[in-house]
Structure formats: structure tokens, C-alpha cells
Amino acid sequence: MNNLLSVNSVRFVVLILIQALLFNNINFLGYINPYPYILFIAFFPVKSNRVMIILSGFLLGLITDMFLDSGGIHAAACVFIAYVRPVILKFSFGTMYEHHHIRFGAVDFGSKLTYIIVLVILHHSILFSLEIFNLSKIILILKKTLFSSIFTILLSTIITIIFSRNPK
């Protein structure tokens, strides 16, 4: 339990620092902004308390908002994906989630990719809808969501592959 807490604390701090120092400075063509910090929410332990993941998601988003001076939109998007995470886990992993036997390092790549794609698209949809907050600019919201999602999914998949432990 203590080891699990320390691993998640290190993951939390490292993802926030990388997001703040590196990825917040990327804004390609005004549409591409990568946000791989949501990997913390994605790979939070499945058996943990649901309130804990929602509070951790809020803290993660709030700290990101402080670095970006974005007024709480990251906190709202993170709380939303932390809240709907059980539904997305069930959609992506099926019975493995129902029996709480998910070990993210041991699941097949297709299920993990589906899970990341759904989380990223939901997060970015909420994030950019709140950022722009104008229904007449729906095309801009969709463009930013699409292009940023593609880049974030690609980046998150690469990070996941690099840092995943291969089951023996």
C-alpha cells in the first residue's frame, strides 16, 4: 500500500512537471496543445477509492490551471473524466473491469489504446468547450479537440509504451 502511494505520488509530480515545463509551451498552429498529464487519471489504480481519484483529478487539474492561468477548465475536465472513468473502464476492458482484475501493464494493446482514446477525447471536448465557451465557434472547438486529441493520444501511447513494464 505504501509503495503504491509513493509510485502514484511520483507519477503525479512528474506528469505535472513535464506538463508545466515542456508541453505547456507547445502550441502548434493554434490547434495542437498536448495534455498527457491525464495519464495520471488513466492509470490510477482500479481498486482504489472512487472519491480519491476524483479528488486527485481535481488537484491535478487545479495545479495545471495554476501553471496555465486557465481559470479552472483543466480541473473541470479532469474531474469529469475521473468521474466517468468506471464507465470507460467497463467499455474498454469489459469483464476484466467487472472483476477488478485489470493490470494496465498486462492488458492487450488494443483495449489500452481504446481506453486512452476515449479518455482523451472526453477530456479535450470538455476542456475546449469550456475554454472557448461560445456555441457559434463549434467548428473551432471541434478542430482544437480533434488535433489536440490526436497529438495527445500519440504522445500518451508513446509514453505508455516506453514506461510500461512487460509482463513475464
TrEMBL record:
It is a multi-pass membrane protein. It is found in: Cell membrane. The chain crosses the membrane at residues 12-32, 38-63, 75-93, 113-133, 145-163. It comes from the Bacteria. Its main location: membrane. Keywords: Cell membrane, Cell shape, Membrane, Transmembrane, Transmembrane helix. NCBIfam families: shape_MreD. Belongs to the MreD family. This is Rod shape-determining protein MreD. It comes from Flavivirga spongiicola.
